[in-house]
Amino acid sequence: MDYTKEELIEAYMQMRIIRAFEEELHREAEENNSFGFAHLYAGAEACAVGVCMHLEPTMRDIVASTHRAHGHFIAKGGDLNAIAHEIFGRADGSGGGKGGTMHVADWNVGMLGANSIIGASAPHALGAAFTAKYKRTGGVAVAFGGDGASNQGAVFESMNFAKAYALPVVFILEDNGYAESTYKSYTTAGSPCERAAGFGIPAVSVDGADFFAVASAAKDAIARARNGDGPSLIHCDVPLFFAHFEGDQETYRASGEVSKLRSDRDCLALFRAQVIGTGNIDTAELDRLDSTATQQAAKAIATAKSAPQPPPQALFTNVYASY
Hints:
This protein is α/β, with parallel strands linked by helices. It has helices spanning 5-30, 45-52, 70-75, 80-87, 121-135, 153-164, 192-198, 211-226, 257-264, 267-278, 283-305; strands at 62-64, 111-113, 141-146, 169-175, 178-179, 182-183, 203-207, 232-237.
């Protein structure tokens, strides 16, 4: 493993916080504590953290996200309390409580924002990558998208433009097998890597539940972009532990499908087995991180639920841009 003990602990802690945060939100939804139309990230934590650990937590490196954005926000360095407040529509949220779960963003750490338009992260990241190249900042842009987004014309156009101009952008395809409720075999022809090859873009497919596989692929792709060698694509096969959205009855999933994913492809369990097996970290240390992450997530959400909402006059702020 090419990581220090401190880096491994930080990576596990981030993955564990994301998991704990999403599980807390799921419990809130089950108890009918409404916080908007939410899409939880649980199961794919290794993808967000494995990628973002190689990015700077500043505006130099940009992440353009999807409707399933909580994990990307936290992994990029976004504040846990700020996202909790935003999801519950509170004044101290990262967007002043006006964006909610579908539009979490924090430009201070380079989290360009969530987006409910399927595939929109690709052209957004493209703009950031073009800016980085034009201004010679050495920055990199990452576009997260799902298997459904991979069929959008804007994504193909972005890949073409990125290759033609050798832009520092990495396309991350988080493939959970479903475009909402439709399985990908009904909608998608060919493989994502073959599609990228059609544009001359280097691509690799990895197990998105394996933190080390994701981190290795991301390290190479981000270094390639930063060195001026253009775009890359990483196809991450990720499990999805909750439904497409909170309240979805999941009638499209086979009986026992999710329980098998949880038992066989939990990135946290796989990470624990790998690091304990090498003797880098012991079980007690990881257990302490589990407890700390659970407490932090619960506290952030409890605090957000009781926090003040934005004042009425906030309706009229940040509506129009001024030039």
